[in-house]
Structure formats: C-alpha cells, structure tokens
Description:
Elements: H1 12-15, H2 19-44, E1 49-56, H3 63-75, E2 79-87, H4 98-108, E3 115-117, H5 127-140, E4 144-146
Amino acid sequence: xxxxxxxxxxxxxxxxxxxxxxxxxxxxxxxxxxxxxxxxxxxxxxxxxxxxxxxxxxxxxxxxxxxxxxxxxxxxxxxxxxxxxxxxxxxxxxxxxxxxxxxxxxxxxxxxxxxxxxxxxxxxxxxxxxxxxxxxxxxxxxxxxxxxxxxxx
Length: 153
C-alpha cells in the first residue's frame, strides 16, 4: 500500500460543519459495508476468519487492546486468524503502515474477511484518512468492525 493507493480526500468534518454529524456519517458508511457481510454470515451459518488490527505507540504491547478486539470478534461469532499491529512511529497516515498494508492484502487474497479494531483511532483520527481506509476495504471486498463506534467518546 502506497500513498497513491490511499489519497488524501479532504476533511469530511470540514464538509460537514458539525463534527458529530461527520462521525455519524462515517459510522453509517462503515456499517453499510459491514451489513451485507453480516447477513451472508447469518445465512450461511459460517464462522469466517477476521484479523484484529491494533495501532500501538512505540514500545507499547498489544495486550489489552488486542484482547478486547479479539473478544469483540468472537462475540460476533467470528474466528480470529491473526492479530496485526503497527506502531505510530511511522505517522498517522495509514498508507505508511506496513501491517495495515498486510491486512488489506490478506483480505484481497481471501485469507481474511475483514478487520476488527477497538476504535477508529486504530485506523486514523483524521476523517479523510479513515474514509480512505474504508474505501480501500470496500475495494478489496472487506469490512471494518469496531468495538467502540465512531460516535463513542
């Protein structure tokens, strides 16, 4: 994944003057991508594999955050294939995170159905970067599920 694959698209909250409305819009966008997958899982009565994605500060261990995301995935009836971690040392831009690129590649190759993270902070605190990752997930046929929705504090 390079900077070209996840272009900066402008701040969505700049387009929507109300930051809460921007958060709701991103929540609706993410859940719209998740809904068809969840319906297909229920219909097939299968337990698909997902990857847990955790963004860590330099020196931080994945411990509690990874365990919480794994617990969320299992509560949804999904098997966790891998826990994939990046550190913030390479910046906030998801295009600069090698583990996120690996996770997206695994989805594109059918090794994982999607990603589960604790919160959108694991992807990006910036609306444009977060929306670009949602678009990339859609493009490779995957989804993002969060333990805490975009509108949670």
